[in-house]
């Protein structure tokens, strides 16, 4: 099946939103009338799986079609490098590309905005001049240098602390209206000098309202949490996960109400964008993708936030797609979020290899910039077996150069999605600090130091970790993952374990090093004066 031509793509990530708080997925509180209406025009996917439980690696996978082990964007190496992004390819193909967000991880210093012609972060942890040009290159030099990697870790921790501070209390005003306004301005500008035969636009939007801490606008707090003071409930996942703060059922209900209020505000602003696209005649020629990068835990499994686990509340995410070649309604088959990279290329009928080969051969006027022969870094080819639009979607048997996931499921009895979680340095650091403040210490085998990988089918999941026990679950019988199942006693779980082992082999082996995060305390003695001066100018050194 050939995809119907669509001129534009709007790709929306509802950051940190879990399925069961959305109307299309049966939320009792129904805080999302926009998405509920959108679901009538879209395909609603029940088994969409994120490649990681947090922002940076998930977005890197969305933008490259690579698993986290392949693109390497983790907290130990917190930037995307040596990969050609979806935006870069679309821009090279003539599309106007824009990225608008209030998420501090989506910025030039992490490489996630590479390839966007227009980009604006409404939540910059660092000054804008730090996020581009020489200082961005300085950041990468630091991260790539073994003696300086501890400094990079310290910088990231400082950035996370600044993010928590800026997002708290009275300073936590929503940036979402500004993101929506800027997206509309981008679309108008993108179309200003374009003819009907020209390529259209690709707009990526990340909305952060549902990320901790929860300080919804007054209108939505009064509707969903009228008796809740945001400052009176636990707004720190670190204090809870460190065992410093207890939360009872009533407080969890209050936290959930604030979360719903944030989602309702986000839904309303998204409705403003959708209505504008309809009113201006752009809706029918625009493919719209709405997803979450990961979910959130509110006490389930004894955890708060999206740290230290690969449970379904975190990785089985909402996904709704509007495209004329997709049937409206619900689909239960397995989907990996990294398939969206290939789907969007398919929607716009863009072949990355052809785009970049054409530029390398000097397509265009002699002497033009394209004639200099750009050589993009690692390029993932469009693969229709990973496109939601294709009849052969996830039929991997005849793929000539299978990726790790395709290779792992080749001989498996079922289809599997794969999830990876590298060692969470930032969260571990904050957890240790919270525990220390309370006169406690974390045990060496605490799950906050564990790297984890999972294979998930629609019926089962198997999670392997390097510092905590492995976990297997029968999702068809126990969707809440309350009762671990030994693969030796259950063939469905055993099959998931085998698929995970094949995936691990394909990406270079298991994570079996049980050592904890490195301590950067002494690394500054190896930093040269020039780097010290730069870090001091940025406020990270006294």
TrEMBL record:
One of its GO terms (molecular function) is arylsulfatase activity. Residues 361-380, 435-461, 509-529 are annotated as: Disordered. The keyword Protein transport does not apply. Residues 435-448 have a biased composition (Basic and acidic residues). Gene3D superfamilies: Alkaline Phosphatase, subunit A (3.40.720.10). Pfam families: Sulfatase. Residues 361-373 have a biased composition (Low complexity). Belongs to the sulfatase family. This is Sulfatase. Keywords: Hydrolase. Residues 7-350 form the Sulfatase N-terminal domain. Transmembrane segments: none annotated. It comes from Halovivax asiaticus JCM 14624.
């Amino acid at each position: 099946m050939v995809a119907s031509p669509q001129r534009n793509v709007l790709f929306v990530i509802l950051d940190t939103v879990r399925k069961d708080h959305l109307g299309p997925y049966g939320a009792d509180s129904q805080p999302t009338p926009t998405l509920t209406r959108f679901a009538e025009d879209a395909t609603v996917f029940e088994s969409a799986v994120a490649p990681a439980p947090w922002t940076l690696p998930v977005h890197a996978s969305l933008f490259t079609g690579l698993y986290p082990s392949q693109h390497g964007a983790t907290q130990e190496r917190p930037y995307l490098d040596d990969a050609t992004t979806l935006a870069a390819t679309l821009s090279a193909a003539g599309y106007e590309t824009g990225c608008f967000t209030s998420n501090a991880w989506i910025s030039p210093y992490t490489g996630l905005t590479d390839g966007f012609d227009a980009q604006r972060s409404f939540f910059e942890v660092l000054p804008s001049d730090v996020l581009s040009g020489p200082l961005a290159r300085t950041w990468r030099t630091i991260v790539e240098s073994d003696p300086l990697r501890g400094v990079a870790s310290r910088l990231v921790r400082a950035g996370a602390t600044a993010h928590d501070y800026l997002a708290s209390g009275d300073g936590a005003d929503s940036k979402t209206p500004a993101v929506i306004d800027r997206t509309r301005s981008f679309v108008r500008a993108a179309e200003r000098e374009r003819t009907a035969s020209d390529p259209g636009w690709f707009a990526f939007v990340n909305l952060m309202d549902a990320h901790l801490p929860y300080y919804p606008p007054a209108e939505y707090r009064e509707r969903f949490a009228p008796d809740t003071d945001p400052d009176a409930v636990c707004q720190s996942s670190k204090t809870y996960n460190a065992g410093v703060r207890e939360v009872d059922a009533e407080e969890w209900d209050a936290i959930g109400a604030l979360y719903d209020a944030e989602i309702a505000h986000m839904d309303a602003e998204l409705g403003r964008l959708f209505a504008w696209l309809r009113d201006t005649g752009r809706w029918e020629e625009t493919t719209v993708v709405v997803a979450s990068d990961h979910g959130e835990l509110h006490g389930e499994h004894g955890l708060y936030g999206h740290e230290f686990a690969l449970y379904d509340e975190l990785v089985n995410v909402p996904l709704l797609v509007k495209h004329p070649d997709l049937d409206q309604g619900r689909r239960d088959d397995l989907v990996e979020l990294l398939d969206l990279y290939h789907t969007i290329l398919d929607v716009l009928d863009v072949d990355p290899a052809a785009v970049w080969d054409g530029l390398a051969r000097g397509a265009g006027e002699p002497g033009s910039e394209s004639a200099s022969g750009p050589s993009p870094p690692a390029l993932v080819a469009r693969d229709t077996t990973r496109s939601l639009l294709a009849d052969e979607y996830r039929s991997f048997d005849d793929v000539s150069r299978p990726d790790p996931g395709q290779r792992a499921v080749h001989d498996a009895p079922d289809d599997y999605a794969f999830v990876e979680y590298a060692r969470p340095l930032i969260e571990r650091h904050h957890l240790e600090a919270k525990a220390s403040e309370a006169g406690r210490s974390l045990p060496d085998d605490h799950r906050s130091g564990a790297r984890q990988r999972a294979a998930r089918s629609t019926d089962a999941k198997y999670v392997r970790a390097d510092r905590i026990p492995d976990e297997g679950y029968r999702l068809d019988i126990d969707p809440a993952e309350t009762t671990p199942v030994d693969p030796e006693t259950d063939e469905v779980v055993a099959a998931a374990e085998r698929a995970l082992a094949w995936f691990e082999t394909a990406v270079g082996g298991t994570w079996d090093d049980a050592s904890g995060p490195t301590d950067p305390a002494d690394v500054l003695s190896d930093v040269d004066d020039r780097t010290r001066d730069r870090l001091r100018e940025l406020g990270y050194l006294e």
